[in-house]
Amino acid sequence: INPKKYKEAFVPSPDGSADIFLDGIAARNRALNGDVVVVKVLPPEQWKVLYQNEVSGDINERTLANQMVPKAPDVIVEARYNEDDEVIGKMKNVVIIFEQKHSRAASGFLKFLPNKNFAMFSPVDHRIPRVNVPLVDCPADFVSRPGDYENVLFICRITHWPADNNFAEGRLAKTLGQAGEIEPETEGIMTEYDVDFSEFSEEVLNCLPQDLPWSIPAHELSRRRDLRKECVFTIDPATARDLDDALSCKQLSDGNFEVGVHIADVSYFVEEGSVLDQIAGKRATSVYLVQKVIPMLPRLLCEELCSLNPLTDRLTFSVIWKLSPEGKILSEWFGRTVICSCIKMSYDHAQSMIEAPDKHFSAEELPPCSTNHRIHEIKEAILNLHNIAKQLRAQRFESGALQLNQLKLSFSLDKESSMPQGCYVYQYQDSNKLVEEFMLLANMAAAHQIYRTYPELAILRRHPPPQSKMVDDLQEFCDQMGLDIDLNSSRGLHRSLNENLGNDEYAAARREVLTHMCSRAMQMASYFCTGALKDENSFHHYALNVPLYTHFTSPIRRYVDVIVHRLLAASLSELLYLHKLASHCNDRKTASKRVQELSSELFFAVFVKECGPLDSEAMVMGVLDQSFDVLVLRYGVQKRIYCNSLEGLKAVHFRKVGKRPEMTLVWEQADPSKESTQQVYYPNSVFVINQHRFGLNKCAQEIE
User: Fold this and answer.
1) Which of 174, 182, 228, 258 has a 20 to 30 A CA-CA distance from 115?
2) Annotated binding site for Mg(2+): which residue ranges?
3) Mean pLDDT over all residues of the chain?
4) Where would I find the RNB domain in this sequence (predicted)?
5) CA 148 vs CA 109, 132, 364, 566, 651: distances in Å
């Protein structure tokens, strides 16, 4: 459902043709955003087609289908209705809601209705209907002092939506607090996206080891390969507390290397079928907000028993290779192990070693280190891993891999209030790339291992290529920007992003804009059970350009990885269960990603509001008739600017110059005696964006 035009909804056509456009609330028969629905397709002679110049520019973003040339429709309209807004019509496109994916919960505001025994709840998200809630659910003084609650956010859950009414019925679940404040807004976001942030129950906690401090039982040690004397270490963000991966590297006498990736053995603690397993499977993923983490597992596991903390014996699942200096795999071993990490390195620590390979590092410059391993030994291991990672990375991209790294906004927070004090773009360094390469290698190795052993039961991750309609739109955008981009393959696109964007001061900005646009064109990667897809070609991962891929390296924060560990350890499960599990993990991963994005948007809005004014250069990414998309270059933030919300705007003129869309904004002057000023915006143009004029200080859900 279009967030800005809630009467417009879209259903991707299963056969890959043009999207089905549902026009009007009635057509979608009370389905909400993300629901799986059964749609009645009318006979072709009753279809009406809309081209882009007949509809709002937003529709073009939603047409995921394969567009025929030269005059194929952007969407197929199954029906058009002119029903009264207050009464839903009887004609419907959506026959039935097959699966309710939407939580039916929303944050919003209460409105008092005189002479009624209910109040009106208006969701912040206009895609959700207004809801009648009984007055008994409202605060005690709401009827006498409704004005006190005008800016108070509430959570409402829809309980019933009559077929003949535009208004749903529901119950108030909670009073959140003042709109625009971080904690109420955050809780609203999590509730809407069905993120379980409740404390773990006593029943769940009883599944954990009760005798603390816990130590590894002797019989378990005897079943594992003992790597505790090896030089094993972790490299993570400085603030990380859930350390689920470690690395090791030692040079062999023949000049090759023994390289290990050691992953926390979460499956040892999470017994299949237990209450703990059930709640972890339901949550499916940890959710990373700006100010906190909503963990998939209790903190005793996340931060203690499973976390590969330094100088502590920990259970792991390892993949160990014999690699040539060029990164060629000469042998491979999988198995359960026990390690003792000798040091907890941050990315910055590892980066300093990479940048100063000849420097002698003192103990004071690094975190506490085991006396069994000298700092020089650790540094040599990191430098060797770095050199091999460079080889692996070059080979991946030469083989056709594609990397679309978008700028990531990070925040510095006040330790007491958790309010944003500053924001900056996260720097992706060689140390990040080092870890990434070996995690990718481990995930690919795990995928081949479980598929080879369980061809009907393996849980893998696939990434389909972009649909041709989106590629055509991207090509048109590149033409508008005057960029020569090869969109025929992932290899060609990667090369274009790194070679064909010029070398002037805005080359990096163009790359970032194009990366955003390419990301829009990409389909989502998803988990699947191999028994549910019979065509092996559909297993392919487009961005990595590999035939088999899975997730193995983050079982503390991803439930799929726990299942992969069980498969690797020869646990057997049923096909139908695994297919449903893959689908559920996809849903939760998508919701988690959106919540993380909204959290970042919320903190950015609060930061701008509290710490402004903010002026930054911005590059125009796209122009529609009443709005335009920009990338704020200083922060890597993408925004859509709607003309009808701009302060001081006198007029808007839209036209196309050849293929290139162009918008002229006419601004009023504070002094009426002076002439109005004009600004022209088109793709690739750069201008200075001002927080107040362009609305950067709106809260995250207002932006949404």
Assistant:
1) 174
2) 236, 245
3) 86
4) 224-574
5) 12, 20, 56, 54, 37
